[in-house]
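Structure tokens please, single chain.
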Amino acid sequence: MKKQIAIFIICLLLPLNTTHAAPGGDSAVLCDDNNPNGQCAVGCYYDGQACYKCPPGYYCTGDNLKRPCSDVLPYTSSDIGANSINQCYMSCETSESGVPHGTLGPCTPDDERAYYPADCNRCLLCETNTVNIDGKNVTNLCDSYFEHNGSCQPRWTTTRPASDDIGTDCTDGADIKYYIRNDAGKFDCYANTCENYDEYELVNLMNNRDFVCSINSQFMSLGKCIKKEINCSDTTEIQDACTAWQNSFHVDSVQVGGTAQLQNGQYDYSTCTCTTEHYPINSATGDEIGQQRMQCNYDVDNSTFNNRTCRHVSVTSCKEKYCVLETNNTTCTPTPAGYFSANPDTSCDKCPAGTTSSGANASINECGIKLGDNGTKFCDSVGCFNLPGSGIINSL
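Here you go.
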């Protein structure tokens, strides 16, 4: 009776569901959430009867199969329950490069993706997946991994990393953000959506690159949120070009104006202007004719402001005997016959009725009666007549 009780107690103490004889005679461990219907969790495989934890040297992704780490030679080792190819590793002692344990650096001379973690005696191969686009295999950054603290971790995250780990941060206007690890080990920020699409536009930076971001076979548009319209005066490139034109044109001051619209991911700066007060010279006399405002548009092809795109847009003041005609209100012209200019007024004023002028007149006093057959007519009840002679008699 005592012998039977002892055997009963020993049976109670033995594990009931941990180790079983797996196919092939190897010892295997049942999964904690073993499913009799054969739907095994990741890190487990199905042998036709039960779900077992993935054995060392294999990885199990949740499709009931176990795959050998030898598929990625020489990364032939794994711990029990490995659930991804990223958990396969190579012992540092067996590395072809001979790098000692605990040294950061490539595991093999021809494979820069794998590193010795400083605190681990295993060499990792972090998976880099690609997507075929138009016959070209393009790296999928959102389905690739990098080594960090002894394990392979995703190259992307929506959680903002520590400031020291950020390479390029997102610009204003970004809403949902993705942080993607670059080759220098820093995270670059990309916007997936913008806060206000009335003000911002998402410029996709994944186009025409050697990498994409695809999650569950869905391509993500990642880029930067850029304002649809900006003031040209807020742009360093335009400010510098306007200053350069000022120096070459030898004017006292310039002012940047206009706005630039976003077109196909780039700003159209051709609408940006550089304006200055200009003092043109009468080429015949060498005299200044007045103060006029000159405005130049940005030459996109040459990235400059230059005289080819300049024009007079308004008149500030005209010198004596010069004025602004209604038909040409952007420059000072010599006062025409029949007009006078009362400086500093810029307009051309007509002489009083019955009088005229010979042109280039500074005041109304130079308006008078014109003599001769084509001169001023005097009329009464009998008829009209002209005063004989030639020239103009000042009448005021």
